[in-house]
Amino acid sequence: MNRIIRWFAMTMIIIWVVAPFIPLWLWSFSLRWRFPNLLPEVWSPRAWLYLLKPSSGVLDATIDSLVIAVVVTVVSVAIAIPAGRALGLYRFRGKRFMEFLILAPTIIPGLASVFGVHGLFLRYHLANSLVGVILVHLISSVTYATMVMWGVFSNYNPEFEEQGRVLGANPIRNFRYVTWPAIFPGIVVAALFSFLLSWYQYLLTLIIGGGKVQTLAMLLFNFARSGDRPVAGALSIIFMIPALIVLFVTSRYLTGENAAVSGLGGGR
Amino acid sequence: MTHLVLNELSQTYSNTDKPALDRLNLDIKSGMLNALLGPSGCGKTTAMKMIAGILTPTSGDILFDGKSVLAIPAERRGAVMVFQNYLLFPYMSVGENVGFGLKMARMNKATIEKKVLEMLELVQLPGVQNRKPSQLSGGQQQRIALARALIVEPKVLLLDEPLSNLDAHLRDEMRELIRDIQRKMGITTVFVTHDQEEAVMLADKIALIFEGVLQQYDEPDVFYNQPGSLRAAKFFGGVNFLDGEYAANQMTTELGTFSAPRSSLDTGPGVLSIRPEDIEFGTTNDGDNTISARVNSHVYVGTYTKYKIDVNDFRFEVIAEANTKESFPDGSNVTIRFPADKIWILPKG
Prior knowledge:
The complex is a heterodimer of chains A (268) and B (349). Chain A contains twelve helices and two strands. Chain A has helices at 2-18, 21-28, 46-52, 58-89, 95-107, 110-123, 130-154, 159-166, 171-199, 203-209, 216-226, 229-250, and strands at residues 30-32, 42-43. A two-stranded antiparallel ribbon of chain A has the order 1-2. In chain A, helix 5 (95-107) crosses helix 7. Chain A is globular. Chain B contains nine helices and 20 strands. Chain B has helices at 44-52, 74-77, 94-104, 109-122, 138-150, 168-185, 196-202, 220-225, 230-235; strands at residues 4-11, 21-28, 33-37, 59-64, 67-68, 79-82, 156-160, 188-193, 205-210, 213-218, 240-247, 250-253, 256-259, 268-274, 280-282, 290-300, 304-311, 314-321, 333-337, 344-347. Chain B is of the alpha+beta class. In chain B, the strands form four sheets. In chain B, strands 6-7-8-3-9-10 form a six-stranded mixed β-sheet, with helices on both faces. In chain B, strand 17 (304-311) and strand 18 form a beta hairpin. The chains are: A mainly alpha (268), B alpha+beta (349). The interface between A and B is medium-sized, with 23 and 28 residues.
């Protein structure tokens, strides 16, 4: 009985996770594929060869996407650690209001706020630039990263740091050897969220980047709209690879003993 | 070996006006084992954190060997605190936990490893260095926390409720271990407890603190024989008190006049106190300080019997050794005697 359930679960997971990729792979290797054929009529590596050519812009777009996502991730986490600590550990005047402000971007649609931001960015020459795109990506990334670190610090016992200090750790080494290992799983998850949010961002990049900043997401959208499905299929696969790598590397921090929510836990 | 002095040490937290600790003065001789005793929330942990340097005093001074240490940050002060819940770093092995202080002092790896093994030997847990803290029992974690503090050879060792999280039998073991190690290493030690028995059994001297104010600082037996106040007497298990007027070695009360040469006051309104085990029991109404009474109830506790005795509207507790031949049934008429040299007169209030 148990084996049947396990097999059933495995099958469902495979269908759910792997099946959506099958049409993408098929498209990417097709030249002609019309309804109602189950498989492409003519096979060809054309799409892949095209994307590998420098003129396709894939390499440039990947680099742009990576630069933006990495900068957004580093900045988000750097802001989220002290912000999460303040919200999770300390009581201060106006805390409720701060909590609301931090959460606001999850309620207000990005599109609504970005039109306001756009005017401001134009005035300060941030529109149509990489810096402008990074700033606008940070709106949602900082929010989610802070929420993760907030949770981590709510479950964190600052007495561990006092213990580190009386044992001779100066503030820097104390952070390095006491605080950092305790919050590291949380940082990984916050970084993962920030990276993926930025990586998959399309609309804000389009508005603020004004077409000057070409990320992979924008390139993919262009091909999908132009109707070149083989190229769109191949690009979708390329588009997903970095995200899958990041997810794979960090997955052990998402569940089980190492989960981000564990904090320092079990101090007692 | 460090001579620790607290001079008018005070702490007032920003959210209250009432100080958590109010002008604490203590002179703790080098190598002594000292207790800060008081009910929870009386300011004893606050005092400890200030000595360790993780809390800045509002006013007052802390001196190690005559020199103020207030300007020295916690990591260089050399006062190591062992927290009540041990706080072993969960992501480090037991060995790494014990060696933490030496690693922070940038000692080389081989020396650290050697010292860690020595420390584990000292706390009687050899061979656990590769385990994770979560694989140890509460008592073992406590020993590791102690080893982690001792390895840096602190000037002052601070223990926050070192026995309160342990089972009764582990408690006895741990108490002896702390006592032995402290004697062997001669480290000036301050521990915090709310349990007077624990303080009496472990400490050379006890500082009794109520609501942030030092009540009495004395050797343990003084708290039993000559408590400084009614509250101190009650905290140390005193139950028999009688109001009266004291003059010329005589205490005049509603139950008569008792001769009482031992007193904390010269003359005036006071409280007669006598410990339950010091009251003598009998049936003959002779001698001084003797009054007639009636047994209300009794409980047999194995090594002794505890009686509740009524005299008019007053009730006294009397403890009689189990080997006392006579036993007194409930309701029987008896006499009780307060030996003059066992009575202690307390100031009123």
